[in-house]
Amino acid sequence: MEEYTIKVDYKVGLGDSACLIPKYLGSNTIHAVVTDPPYGLNFINWDQTLPPIEIWKQCFNVLRPGGFCVAFAHTRLYHR
User: Fold this and answer.
1) N or C: which terminal CB in the chain sees fewer CB atoms within 10 Å?
2) pLDDT digits (tens, 9 = 90+) for 19-32
3) Distance (Å, whole) CA 54 – CA 58
4) Rounded to the nearest 5 degrees, what angle is found at the Cα of 38, between the Cα atoms of 77 and 23?
């Protein structure tokens, strides 16, 4: 039985997603975006505002053709 070695490099960025997405990722490079963004319900400090539309445009830009975007949401926000 053959053994395979897979080398995986990870990059962790800390900061604003709008700045990090274009810095670390190129166009059409990601198979899936899975996120639980703030809902804008003012429930806790980090959940006070919705992500700007630019972040969603950048997520679409880095997705490969046929890629998936799974974004969790609250039932009160389906209209957004």
Assistant:
1) N
2) 888 888 889 999 99
3) 6
4) 125
- Report the pLDDT averaged over residues 67-75: 86
What is the phi/psi pair of residue 76, to 5°? -75, -5
Output the CA torsion 60→65→71→77 (10° steps).
Answer: 70
- The three-class DSSP label of residue 9 is coil
Distance CA 1, CA 39 (A): 50
Q: Which residues pair with 32 in a beta bridge?
A: 68
Question: What is the 3-state secondary structure of 49-78?
Answer: CCCCHHHHHHHHHHEEEEEEEEECCCHHHC
Helices 17-24, 53-62: axis angle to 10 degrees equals 20
| AA identity, residue 19 | C
Whether the Cβ atoms of residue 52 and residue 44 lie closer than 8 Å to each other: no
Element (H, E) at 35: strand 30-35
